[in-house]
Design goal:
- The protein is built from ten helices and 22 strands.
- The chain has helices at residues 4-13, 72-84, 98-110, 121-138, 192-201, 252-265, 273-278, 304-307, 434-443, 455-460, and strands spanning 140-144, 151-155, 161-164, 169-172, 178-185, 206-213, 217-224, 227-236, 239-248, 286-293, 299-303, 312-315, 319-320, 322-327, 332-336, 357-363, 375-383, 386-388, 399-401, 407-414, 428-433, 462-468.
- The strands form four sheets. Strands 3-4-5-9-8-7-6 form a seven-stranded antiparallel β-sheet, with helices on both faces. Strands 13-12-22-10-11-15-14 form a seven-stranded antiparallel β-sheet. Strands 16-17-18-21-20-19 form a six-stranded antiparallel barrel.
- Strand 14 and strand 15 (332-336) form a beta hairpin.
- The radius of gyration is 25 Å and the shape is globular.
- It starts with a helix and ends with a strand.
Length: 470
Amino acid sequence: MRTASAVLLCSVLLLPALAPAQAPQPSGRNPHPVAEPKRAAAAEPKNEPKGQPKKKDASPQPSRDANAALSVTDRILLELDLAWAGFYTGLITGEAGDKVTDAVKAFQKDFKLKDTGTLAPGDRMLLANLAKEKRDQVGWRMMEDPVTGAQVGLPTRQVPNSGPGRSGTRWFSAQGQIQVETFRLSGPGTSLMDVFEQQKKEPASRHVEMSVVRPDAFFLSGMQGLKKFDVRADIRDGEVRGITILYDQATEGIMEGVAVVTANAFAPFPGTGLAALTGAPMRRKVEYGSGIVVTAGGHILSDRRLADGCNVIAVAGVGNAARVAEDLGSGLVLLRVYGVADLAPVTLVHEGAKGPALTLVGISDPRDQGGGRVISTTTARIDGDMITPAPPAGFDGAAAIDSQGRLFGMVELRDGVASAGTAALPRHATVVGVEALRNFLDSQYVTPATGRAGLDAAKAALVRLICVRK
């Protein structure tokens, strides 16, 4: 089985600023799980004059990387999909190399394809769909840690709970079998080596099997009691930001593959991580979305991602909102504004839609409205939890109304990302159903309003949210 430790080692090497160096061999897990082909020993040259040094072959050895013609971004995406599918645990940088070809061949052999080392368009889509299934299975989401400021990728179904860590944020499963925790250390005299030595020894049950130190980062992996652990940390301007992944051996079948991507996706500082390498857009300093008022007391539901990393969340024309609670599983966030008496809540009902047609009620981005904040509607269709066509920017957190005028759910809007070796996909949207909204409110002991339904009522309950980040 391929090991997550190897990938975390590679994720340290991922940083472009780090100088290349020969990584030490671990005492335990294999740092190069994708095996290199065995090469036959060279034949002893005949009639070589005795006492004369043998001439070395100075000709460069050709690379077997059959994917070298791909762009850097396409190779990164290929490596990521191979990692999700369990065939690649190497360095995800998009650099040409033989390990990608080996991983592609392993995938092709598993799926009874001709093992050429390159993927035809249909086979590339097969791999992309397999990777998507894995991501969906664990509820993979990228988010900003509000405490450390790092960008973190999380399997939200495996770690649905969150709370404060010692110096960051901790995400964890119900019984703590799986844990992901960020940390941030700074202050006079803070050094990477001091943090490295501390992480080696704490807690006392930690047994290090692999360690790698670079000028700006380090990596540790091993056993911590009966759990596997991996630690990565980076330093910039006297501040160390890191991530720890801890999981029971019983969860290894799921978590080793997840840890591969978690390690490589971790972006401790702006301009680092896979988003920087692929040119993916960074979160804006000011971002606009929509919210649904659900109580006369000022409770508002919206998309958790919209509220990630916000120093201030403002409700346009009303005031600042406080963050009450969030749910990683459903992707919801509960906000509240206090001392406001003129907010009109929407009514939540149990019945579902009678058909696939939906009306989306939201507030488009002000850049699309010439600075305005007019509430608008757009029609869409629901297929599973996907909405097509996707609504415009600003509809993140918007209301989805069914054909009977009842609240069907809340829109979660995502910008497109490159996938399957192609150009960026278009913006896409999903819907969180009304039952999930009710369950989330119940978990926070919030009773939603009752009253009239209909499109006009939904419009009255819509507010614009403004997230301001550092």
